[in-house]
Design goal:
- The structure holds 2 protein chains of 2 kinds.
- Chain A contains 12 helices and 12 strands.
- Chain A is of the alpha/beta class.
- In chain A, strands 6, 7, 8, 9, 10, 11 and 12 form a 7-stranded mixed sheet that branches. A 5-stranded parallel sheet of chain A has the order 2-1-3-4-5, with helices on both faces.
- In chain A, strand 11, helix 12 and strand 12 form a beta-alpha-beta unit.
- The longest helix of chain A has 31 residues.
- The radius of gyration of chain A is 22 Å and the shape is globular.
- Chain B is an all-alpha fold.
- Classes of the chains: A alpha/beta, B mainly alpha.
Chain lengths: 317, 106
């Protein structure tokens, strides 16, 4: 990700650049004034993927800078993150009104910075996915429909965080015993996938799967998750990390997130996808089975949830 | 405070810390000049704005670099310069901030 950072304090720019490097972002250009940054946007031979700007600067402040950025056609959608002291949060509304995407507070906290930049990275990935999808659909729209069979596991085009279901099975088979028992899986079933499949074209159905996949990744607090589409409207996730939330909360978060797409689906006369998140499943030391059984149990739990009264923690495969 | 700075020597934030220490001298000089202007009643608005600007910058970086006390004083000073214009408070906080910045140079 190519980042342009703007602040009138050279110490803060050093600090920001150092923190960004520690979380994996090293392509950073720094500017000490918004005026210089505007010139940089005009003169640079490349586009920046993300702009971080101080809100309160002498001369052109962050709000005016945001307006100047948004006036440039090639930067209408570029994520702009305002950086402001807690005392300056009252100015953030103006920045949002001018077109800012989000804000970060000073003093910088590396966890907050990572979360916010991670959000930008996901947003950019989603836009790339949609652009790739538009390209694919454009290529095929003339005569060739994207063939998507309802039961078939497919790799979501342009969604680089997902893997093939077969690859996920292979991944589990390569895990040693110890890692296998520390790995958990859970399924996410699109309850109305069948309805959408019957009403939509293949391309639209696959695009819907992409929307759901992106929403899943947004809803999970850990990024160390493998995600695959297993067919029949069901995704499965595998992780060695704590999810940070229980399945019920993830389900609520996802269904709220999917409502953001409501107008898009309405224009296609399709229902918004609604998901159910199954129980987290693990392998058992006491009754070892083949590693891929965990996936089957995770999927089954998402499609046919066990009676909640009988639930007692995690399912064991 | 100084031990916090020493701990940063091998950290990814070392360059930022060096920049902070380098600028501390010139910032202290500017703050002292502005303080004198306020004490003598000259260019008070301009002097207060300059103090607020420096205090605001210190607030944004000091705590992250381990200079907790500087960050806390600077935040309060910024508040009084931009909101209350309470000059006795501003002078008191300015003195405290100058003491802290002077200690960095030693």
């Amino acid at each position: 990700m190519r980042i342009l950072a703007v602040d009138d304090d050279p110490v803060f720019l050093e600090l920001l650049a150092a923190m960004l490097k520690t979380i994996g972002y090293s392509d950073i250009t720094t500017m000490m004034s918004a005026e210089n940054a505007v010139r940089e946007l005009d003169m640079a031979g490349h586009a920046y993927d993300c702009i971080l700007s101080d809100l309160q600067m002498p001369g052109m402040d962050g709000v005016a800078f945001t307006s100047a950025i948004r006036a440039k056609p090639s930067y209408r959608q570029t994520p702009i993150l305002m950086i402001t002291a807690m005392s300056g949060k009252s100015f953030v509304d103006d920045a949002f009104a001018a077109g800012a995407t989000d804000y970060i507070t000073k003093p910088l906290d590396v966890i907050e910075l990572k979360a916010r930049i991670g959000m930008v990275a996901r947003l950019l990935a989603e836009r790339r996915r949609l652009a790739e999808f538009a390209r694919l659909v454009g290529q095929r729209a003339a005569a060739v429909e994207i063939e998507a069979e309802f039961e078939t596991p497919i790799l979501i085009p342009g969604f680089d965080r997902g893997i093939d279901y077969l690859a996920m099975e292979n991944y589990l088979l390569t895990l040693g015993v110890k890692r296998m028992f520390s790995t958990s899986a859970f399924g996410i079933h699109i309850k109305n996938a069948g309805v959408i499949f019957n009403k939509a074209s293949g391309a639209t159905f696959v695009q819907m799967l992409g929307d759901v996949a992106a929403t899943i990744m947004d809803a999970l607090k850990t990024e160390d998750v493998l995600l695959a589409y297993a067919g029949s409207g069901t995704f499965v996730c595998v992780t060695e990390h704590d999810l940070g939330s229980n399945p019920e909360d993830i389900e609520i978060f996802m269904n709220i997130g999917l409502m953001d797409f409501e107008s898009i689906y309405a224009s296609d006369r399709l229902p918004v996808p609604q998901v159910r998140v199954g129980e987290v499943t693990r392998s058992s030391f006491l009754s070892p089975t083949k590693p891929t059984r965990v996936l089957e149990r995770a999927i089954a739990s998402a499609i046919n949830p066990p009676d909640k009264k009988q639930k007692a923690g995690r399912l064991v495969a | 405070m100084y031990s916090a700075a020493l701990r940063l020597q091998d950290s990814p934030l070392a360059a930022a810390e060096q920049a902070f220490l380098r600028l501390a001298v010139s910032r202290a000089r500017t703050l002292r000049d502005c303080g004198q202007q306020i004490a003598t009643g000259q260019n008070m608005t301009e002097a207060t704005d300059r103090i607020a600007g420096i205090a605001h910058q210190l607030t944004g970086t000091a705590e992250t670099l381990g200079f907790i006390e500087i960050g806390l004083i600077a935040e309060e000073l910024d508040h009084h310069c931009t909101t209350t214009k309470d000059y006795p408070q501003i002078s008191r906080l300015l003195d405290a901030l100058l003491d802290q910045l002077s200690a960095l140079a030693r």
